[in-house]
């Protein structure tokens, strides 16, 4: 959520900050602001809505007001207070001298606010962030040192934060602080950058320092100093950034989401290239530290995730249990952290997150670590907070995903989970070699099957146009494709705002069937396999209630073809691997419905790419 960009150096800060914020738009936001600071002067600009509104305001400003070489900017996703201009960041103290931008949530702001009001602080906004601004300003009044003021103030804060703080009397420095929210410092020659994510600064530098929890940094144009939570100066570890600016280009596609859907064959190849070389070789997972001896003691697996990652975990449950015979529980992170979970040193806990910064999942993982469980993290970001908590790490290699709605990262998660399941089966010897060889062969041929679907989408576009006026949608499936129904419904909800729900097909008659009539589309996923006939029966039940029926399948016989109003035929594929092929059809259907409706495909309302608050 939210985006932070800071710059201090020799160039016009406004240009770098605004460009950086535009590269963070994919994270989701509802207002934006920037502060440009020079000696004893600061100009703050804010706007609700899209970043273009802020750019328009700044375009009318006098050149002398926006020509400074230091500043901080922010895109806000509302947590406390409406998405208004007054609640937008940056926030200031009473006199406007101290300026702050903040990601995260200050959990004890209601306790701190009355104390600060008694000291004369006047609050203008509804945000928790303004409490931090007044608190740091009060500390600065006592210490006359911005670094020490921030160090002192953060000890009184509870919750999650990534801060950038400036003061008009000290325009040569930006103080940055982090706890449970991502923050990096990009380093350059005579200039330095601060950001909440790599895309904001990758155009300007390939080197960065990852700020860790409870650290505070003093950033100047020619230096970066990092202090730990006890105030000791520590050495800087400068690392190479992994992304290229070209990843932020649409490459001729109308939307990033469409581009990312079409990148999925290559994503699968990238995931497999260093993990599964051919069906005769064992799976290689270099950073998964689970020996045969360790796995022999594992009697339970817990998968913890949110949203799309949770659906990938549900597919993982079917595959891992089938191949290893180890029971697997899958739970939303937000539920896991608020009950007494049963986990111990014989539990393997798998956390899944594209960003590796999902707040609920981080809290859940920390809780599991306290129970001495082995933590395996599946993420797209090796530099993330979750990756740093891992005992074992499985990187999904999806590259930058700009569209808020996850597509290629979901695919990469699926393929990584398949590879992990095979690895666990090979290590424990729970599954015959011939079955594992066949599964590896299926995965290696998957990219070409994905390309077949992606190279001929005319039918999907026509179906999307036909059903784009629907107010509601039902997705049904059974077995390993039930999570595909959930993910397909989620994609449609996210980007088209059509109310869509996924059900196990057998549950349709236990209540939801009351909703069916000629206005209700029902999309059924039915692949050749053990549940095919059962799903087909459920389709007949829906058709008997006059529902409009869409089928996504790799097999249909002549006597049933007239049952469906519309059909999407996918290439032949095993039931176990079919979720990776079916989901592309559902992604394309959601995309084209949204596009026909004229929605903001890449940045749907109210959503954020990386949810860094609980």
Strand content: 15-25%
Whole-number mean pLDDT: 91
Main beta-sheet strand count, sense and barrel state:
8 strands, antiparallel
Q: Please give the order of strands in the largest beta sheet.
A: 3-2-4-1-10-9-11-15
Per DSSP E runs of 2 or more residues, the count of β-strands stands at 25
Determine Rg (CA atoms, Å).
26 Å
Distance between the termini: 11 Å
Q: Report low-confidence residues grouped into runs of 5 or more.
A: none
Overall outline = globular
> Share of helix among residues?
25-40%
Number of helices: 18
Structure description:
The chain starts with a strand and ends in a 17-residue tail after the last helix. The chain is globular, with a radius of gyration of 26 Å. 35% of the residues lie in helices and 23% in strands. It is of the alpha/beta class and 614 residues long. An 8-stranded antiparallel beta sheet has the order 3-2-4-1-10-9-11-15, with helices on one face. Helix 7 packs parallel to helix 13. It contains 18 helices and 25 strands.
């Amino acid at each position: 959520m939210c985006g932070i960009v800071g710059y201090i150096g020799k160039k016009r800060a406004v240009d770098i900050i605004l460009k950086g914020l535009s590269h963070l738009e994919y994270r989701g936001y509802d207002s934006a602001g920037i502060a440009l600071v020079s000696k004893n002067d600061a100009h703050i600009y804010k706007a609700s809505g899209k970043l273009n509104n802020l750019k328009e305001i700044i375009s009318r400003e006098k050149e002398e007001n926006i020509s400074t070489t230091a500043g901080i900017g922010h895109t806000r996703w509302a947590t406390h207070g409406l998405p208004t201009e007054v609640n937008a960041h940056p926030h200031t103290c009473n006199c406007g001298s101290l300026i702050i931008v903040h990601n995260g949530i200050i959990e004890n702001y209601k306790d701190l606010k009355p104390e600060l009001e008694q000291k004369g602080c006047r609050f203008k906004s509804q945000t928790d962030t303004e409490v931090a601004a007044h608190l740091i300003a009060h500390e600065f009044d006592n210490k006359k040192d911005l670094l020490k003021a921030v160090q002192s103030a953060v000890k009184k804060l509870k919750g999650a934060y990534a801060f950038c703080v400036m003061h008009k009397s000290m325009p040569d420095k930006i103080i940055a602080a982090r706890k449970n929210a991502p923050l990096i410092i990009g380093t350059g020659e005579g200039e330095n950058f601060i950001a909440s994510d790599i895309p904001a600064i990758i155009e300007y530098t390939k080197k960065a320092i990852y700020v860790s929890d409870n650290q505070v940094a003093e950033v100047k144009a020619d230096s970066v100093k990092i202090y730990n939570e006890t105030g000791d100066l520590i050495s800087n570890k400068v690392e190479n950034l992994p992304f290229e600016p070209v990843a932020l280009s649409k490459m001729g596609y109308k939307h990033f989401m469409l581009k990312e859907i079409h990148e999925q064959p290559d994503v699968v190849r990238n995931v497999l290239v260093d993990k599964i070389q051919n069906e005769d070789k064992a799976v290689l997972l270099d950073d998964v530290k689970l020996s045969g001896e360790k796995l022999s003691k594992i009697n339970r697996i817990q998968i913890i995730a949110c949203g799309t990652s949770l659906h990938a975990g549900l597919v993982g449950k079917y595959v891992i249990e089938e191949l290893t015979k180890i029971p697997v529980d899958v739970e939303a992170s937000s539920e896991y952290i608020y009950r007494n979970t049963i986990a111990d040193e014989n539990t393997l806990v798998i956390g899944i997150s594209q960003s590796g910064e999902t707040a609920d999942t981080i809290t859940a993982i920390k809780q599991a670590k306290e129970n001495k469980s082995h933590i395996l993290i599946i993420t797209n970001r090796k530099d993330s907070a979750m990756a740093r908590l891992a005992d074992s790490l499985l990187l999904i290699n999806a590259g930058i995903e700009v569209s808020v709605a996850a597509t290629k990262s979901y695919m990469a998660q699926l393929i990584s989970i398949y590879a992990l399941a095979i690895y666990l089966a090979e290590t424990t010897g729970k599954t015959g070699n011939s079955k594992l060889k066949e599964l590896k062969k299926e995965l290696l041929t998957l990219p070409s099957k994905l390309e077949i679907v992606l190279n001929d989408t005319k039918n999907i576009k026509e179906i999307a146009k036909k059903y784009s006026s629907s107010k509601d949608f039902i997705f049904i499936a059974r077995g390993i494709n039930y999570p595909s129904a959930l993910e397909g419904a989620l994609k449609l909800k996210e980007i088209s705002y059509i109310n869509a729900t996924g059900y196990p097909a057998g549950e349709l008659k236990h209540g939801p069937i009351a909703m069916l009539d000629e206005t209700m589309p029902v999309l059924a996923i039915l692949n050749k396999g053990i549940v095919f006939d059962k799903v087909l029966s459920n389709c007949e039940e829906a058709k008997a209630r006059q529902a409009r029926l869409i089928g996504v399948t790799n097999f249909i016989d002549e006597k049933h073809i007239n049952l469906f109003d519309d059909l999407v035929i996918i290439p032949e594929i095993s039931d176990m691997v079919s979720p990776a092929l079916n989901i592309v059809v559902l992604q394309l259907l959601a995309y084209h419905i949204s596009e026909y409706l004229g929605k903001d495909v890449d940045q749907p309302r109210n959503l954020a790419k990386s949810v860094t608050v609980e």
